[in-house]
Amino acid sequence: MTTQKTQNHKSKLAYATGLAAVLAASAPFGLQAEKLSKSAPAYVPAGQVNSWLDGRAEINFLALQNYQAIQAKAGAFRPEDEVQSDGFGRLRLNLQLKFHINEHITADVDIAEEPNDFGNNGDRDFAFHQDFAGIEFDLFGLTNSEQDDADLTLRIGNIGAAPFQFKGFQDGADNQGNALIGNGMIDYATAENGVQLSYSKTLDDGGPITGYNLAGHVTTSSFGEAFQDNRGYNYRLQGTLEFAGGFKAGLNMFQANQGDQLTFAGGLASLAGVTTTNYRFGDGDNYNFSASGSSERDTHIGALPGLDQSILQLNLAYQPTPNTSLIFMIGESSDDYTFADTAGNAVPGITYFGTDGVVDPNGTTHDAMYVVRGNSSVEYYILEAQQYLVPEKFYVAARYAEAENTSDLISQSNNTAERLQVAAGYWINDRTLLKFEYVDQDEGANSGGQIGKGFDGFTSELSVKF
After folding, report:
1. Residue 395 falls within a domain, yes or no?
2. E-assigned strands of 322-411?
3. What are phi and psi for residue 29, nearest 5 degrees?
4. Rounded distance, CA 403 to CA 419, Å?
5. Residues with Cβ < 8 Å from 37, sequence gap 6 or more?
């Protein structure tokens, strides 16, 4: 899932020689002569947008290479993860395009070769995919009722669905807005298809509140298409307040109604052919294990089936100076259903030990493909801090997250998972960021953690953005 952050301005055309020739070949003759007669730099400062066609189109290219030395802890679900080699991950690439259809309509697309989203098929699929795309309508502008201090935007297409705000998020090679490397074991983030309406207003009356935002969306539970009988919708309502002095507060509410797809027999229902919420686990982390595909979400808490799932999360942020950032998030996510083994026994998460599909602490790994009725829930909080020791050059950051599996049918002992991340970042230049992180995750047997005991180690990323 990628947020488009570009500037809407008409800058000089930034062609490299080859790109100029390609564009010119498809343009009217008069336009060719005009553009090719102008000198234009191949390098555009990082604070500007790479634009062409008189600013009607913008482009960003991103690339990232990571290196990790991470091991699962003794007693993990898959023993081969406990002793695995360090090494380099697959290169991640993003090509982000934004088109100004007219003054009040824009379209965007992020095309990505992103292993932790699209690494299935035996990790042989190296094709680019549509990772995030949509069309946005400036409704005030389209109705000739523009306001200098307010915006009303309708977005159709892929909608970013996440309850967190203010913290950086990592999506493929788009990592420079995230001070750390992992997204978080309970980030509940994805992109789905639907519509979103957002209203923002800036206040300059000298009061304590300097602005606010309200947004709501309706999506289906699929990045593709899902039209089967009783497939419901996902709903989100979000509000944000910004205060003078660098303080922000946001509240997010999610609700999904996918449970009517289930067919129960003897109190047990199969998830085969059922569409579940994409944000039940979260987006892909750049922590990888040899026993699972690169697109797995197995570093996240997998306690919720994602059917009639609800999320309520409060986000607080304080940035007293451009060099200091503090974020606190607290929330609860719940579902009306609980994962179960083939015999109908409730299990703490999608991954469990079993024998022939029946839960057994001495068995082998199984993924739960069944559910029973019964509330499953996770209560969690996250603390994150970032401090630049050398402004615009070198920073340190830390994040601590704790999640407790409070599901009704799960034992309320040994049911907590924790993750600590400590990182440093160095800007080699204004386009190149080197990040280094130590991560330590502990998972109780009843926490819903998908590694089994947790993992720890070091990881790093070198990324460029042009």
Report:
1. no
2. 324-340, 351-355, 358-359, 364-367, 370-390, 394-405
3. -60, -45
4. 9
5. none
pTM metric for this prediction: 0.86
Which residue, among 139, 176, 174, has the nearest Cα to 1 in the 3D structure? Answer: 174
Query: Are 251 and 360 in a shared domain?
Result: yes
Q: Do residues 24 and 169 both lie within one domain?
A: no
Top-confidence range, 89-103, 281-295, 368-382: 368-382
> Per the domain annotation, does 392 fall within a domain?
no
Amino acid at 217: H
Residue 402 lies in a domain: no
- Residues 265 and 303: their CA atoms lie apart, in Å, by 22
Calculate ∠ Cα 312-153-99, nearest 5°.
120
Tell me which residue of 438, 432, 430, 443 sits closest to 456, measured CA to CA.
438
Per the DSSP assignment, residues forming a β-bridge with 338 are: 372
pLDDT by residue (tens digit) across 30-70?
333 333 334 444 556 666 777 777 778 999 999 999 999 99
264 found inside a domain: yes
Q: What is the DSSP letter of 11?
A: P
Q: Within this chain, do residues 270 and 381 fall inside the same structural domain, yes or no?
A: yes
Domain boundary among 387, 416, 433: 387
Domain range for 2: 1-55
> Within 10 Å of residue 356's Cβ, how many Cβ atoms?
11
Q: Are residues 268 and 374 in the same domain?
A: yes
**Distance, CA of 458 to CA of 107 (rounded, Å):** 39
Distances (CA, A) of 394 to 18, 89, 176, 435, 463: 35, 24, 13, 10, 15
